[in-house]
Amino acid sequence: MPKPALHVAVTGAAGQICYSLLPRIAQGDVFGKDQPVVLQLLDLPQALKAVQGVVMELEDCAFPLLAGIVVTDDPKTAFRDIDAAFLVGSRPRSQGMERRDLLSANAEIFKVQGRALNEAAKRDAKVLVVGNPANTNAYIATRSAPDLPLGNITAMVRLDHNRALAQLAAKAGVGTAAIDKLVIWGNHSPTMFADYRFATANGRKLPELIGDETWYRETLIPTVARRGTAIIEARGSSSATSAANAAIDHMRDWVHGSDGRWVSMAVPSDGSYGVPEGLVSGAPVICAGGSYSRVTGLEIDGFARSMLDKTVAELTEERDAVAALLA
Ligand SMILES: NC(=O)C1=CN([C@@H]2O[C@H](COP(=O)(O)OP(=O)(O)OC[C@H]3O[C@@H](n4cnc5c(N)ncnc54)[C@H](O)[C@@H]3O)[C@@H](O)[C@H]2O)C=CC1
Ligand SMILES: O=C([O-])CC(=O)C(=O)O
């Protein structure tokens, strides 16, 4: 007897991230290899023809778990009774822009969609915001969806986490799976703080294994922070496959658990670590039983404090910049 299908909304369905994301959701990479899904796809009216093309391709994959597809330009229809949502739809940046430059273009989208989630989604729906500036867009969605549990609206810093993992693993000469307890704090922006102070590799302390604090501070942190820009410069458009992969990692761990390992999620702050309550900020969490809990009590030394303060100041500025929209 097959399980009842989960209903999963994905916005920006005609875009480049979704072209990588949708087939992987449909083949069970997020919700499980025995879990049917109905995809509820949202895009703008002018993009619906392109979405139909994507739908034809999904049909042609004959995915056994794909139990249905809804295509719409109406957020409430897209979010009706959903169990999970990937909010990808929004404008990406081009060369010369920072992600915060997208705030005015994209903020309104997340107000409208937050309201629609509030009205139509299941009360325990898990929401991941990918569209940039992801943290502040998620903050707008939390403020626009007051009837959903605050912690169920999250944003993606998993791409930064995965980028840092790859760089650190290469430097330490270990596989990425060997590394645990890496943290991405703060904003998905050049101010984010990739913190390896607690990280281990095969049980050894990673900072000791690498033994090069200068490389960590002067190469690793800026490389991860500017990776999105490097990809735009090389590819001519922003990261898509790696962004879709990170979205899958984020939601899969949230749903199925992280096996005791730390993962980085941007979640509404509870005020810990000096991050003002409500800001959606990257933090270390452990996922289990369909929810996440923050890793608490970590020491924040002088360097970490200065890095955290910088990224939190940016999140605070972004929050203040959208205050009028939310008034
Ligand atoms: N958080 C992260 O780590 C990352 C975030 N991103 C962000 O993800 C977003 C999407 O990127 P791409 O797929 O490359 O862009 P894209 O331009 O290829 O696709 C965006 C899609 O969203 C649709 N869209 C725009 N406004 C919409 C609305 N109000 N409702 C529904 N759909 C809407 C567009 O019609 C288009 O089909 C961008 O904001 C990008 O900056 C990209 C990479 C990583
Ligand atoms: O850099 C961008 O604009 C897209 C993105 O968020 C990333 O690749 O991390």
UniProtKB/TrEMBL annotation:
Residue numbers annotated as active site: H188 (proton acceptor)
Q: Which SUPFAM superfamilies match?
A: LDH C-terminal domain-like (SSF56327), NAD(P)-binding Rossmann-fold domains (SSF51735)
Lactate/malate dehydrogenase N-terminal domain: from which residue to which, for each copy? 7-146
Limits of the Lactate/malate dehydrogenase C-terminal domain: 158-324
Q: Which InterPro entries match?
A: L-lactate/malate_DH, Lactate/malate_DH_C, Lactate/malate_DH_N, Lactate_DH/Glyco_Ohase_4_C, Malate_DH_type2, NAD(P)-bd_dom_sf
Sequence similarity? Belongs to the LDH/MDH superfamily. MDH type 2 family.
Q: What does this protein do?
A: Catalyzes the reversible oxidation of malate to oxaloacetate.
What name does the UniProt record give this protein?
Answer: Malate dehydrogenase
